[in-house]
Design a protein that fits this description.
mainly beta, 41 strands, Immunoglobulin-like, 1% helix, 7-stranded antiparallel sheet, single chain, 1 helix, 6-stranded antiparallel sheet
Length: 564
Amino acid sequence: MYPVSSAKGKGRGGYPHYLLVFTATKLVLPHCKEMGLWGMRTFSRLIGCLALWVGSCFGAGPKFEGTPTLVPNPNPAAPQAGILTFEAAQKVKTTLRAASGDHEFEQEFGTESDPADGLAVVGMRPDRTYRVEVVITDASGTTTYDRTLTLVSPALPDRPELMPSTEVEVHDARKMEGGYTLFNPRRRIPLVVADAISAESEFNANFGMLLVVDSAGEVVWQYRSESRITDYRPISNGNIVFITADNRLVKIDTLGNTVASWCARFRPENREGQCPEGSIPVDVETIHHSFHEYPNGDFLILSSEIRIPDYYTSETDAYAPRKTTEVVGDVVLRMTREGEILWQWKAFDHLDPFQIGYLTYSNYWARRGFPNTADWSHANAVRIVDDGASFLVNFRLISGIAKVDVETQDIKWMATSDPEKLGLEWKHPTFKLADGDDWFWMPHAPWITDRGTLLLFNNDNFGARPFDKSLPPSAIRSRAEEYAFDEEKLEMRKIWQSRFPGEEPLRSWAMGSVQPLDNGNVLAGYGLMLVEENIYSITWPERLGHPAWTQIREYDRSDPAPVV
């Protein structure tokens, strides 16, 4: 378990800095294994190196041509990496063994990786000097370079606005899934005026980070960008793809180099309709929250559109006067690597925009360049299912998950909180929850697991929809949950949750993630968690000014669920 707590020190205007986890995932660093880690199996594999390739001990072996060089990565976006360069007379497999004190790791590169182009060295803990041995192998045998190279890793920034303060509270290596953990800290200064557009909110948005920690919680890789990072995934070829707050989809390698990028052609940042140089324009207004890669390299992504109905002006008074309002609804689309849109699915065409949720008037889209708008559906996750024939989309404010048929565009089913209160106008096939189970509220990150279950992160916010009375922030009990479900009978029941008796409440009012792991465990990222101080006195409008922190937890799927 990795709590990422509020960093010590003060930021701009005297407010404390916070770096908070949006989501977390297990991964394998490209070509890398940490010595002593077992079974580096993950849901999202990067280029694997699970065992050291051992060449023949006999024969002449391949030859180094010239002197290998090992230098720090010159790209400041990924400072905790190095580059190994050398030439060989023929194609070789390269093994790098690095050691510093009690820490060792290995990397293996196949013959498709040309060392003359430079090999990315990743896996170093900060502020250490590593001794590095280089071994090359081909059919003729194995050769070890006769001198040990050295590489010094930089110290982590000692500035709270640039690096979170972290602490490992629980660590049972025997029960943890092997591999590394990738997550995205977000910089946050609590806002003085709730939901305001301000210098503080811009300061929060103009910083993005990805961190990788090893099994002991030590940072072994980092990446920094000039825009907040939301969703991210290691993809099939070993690169990492992520979405930024300024409506871009970006692909990088482990040296932090941008390999490709796409931008929303009509985003607010494009005052003259132009994307940044080298970025592929996509004919949408936004790229937000979530994406998923198809096997052929296409992307399923979330975008949005605005429609202008005569709309509510209140979340608490259904009879308040209505007015013409720009309402933001979600769009799901499939996009090629060339930026071509193959199809789109629009929430406005399938769901009732007058089924609203709390936070509709939170200025969410105003802070992202769309002033005076209402946030209706607020999708925060998409996932490819049924081998691409369907997709899942999660609507936070509607508090519902839809499975959609790509060909017909019909909603196959919805799992949505308190469906009996949605009225006669609700026409979609909707799950009924088993008696005695309680519904999720404003969830994140749904999965249909290999077990055929529905796994999600339940933020448990508000506990109601407008215009029913909501629960206060102190009532939040955030957790990972798993449901068995029958698509034919439209029945579901809760079979597991991460909360256990006697546990102190975890109150995440925004963000969050969950991931099923190969060893049966569940990894949960708790998003933006309210601290306990004064929790029983704050109201929902005051939440942005309240201090917050976060945790990453790996759970055994037992009941009660232990943290490993």
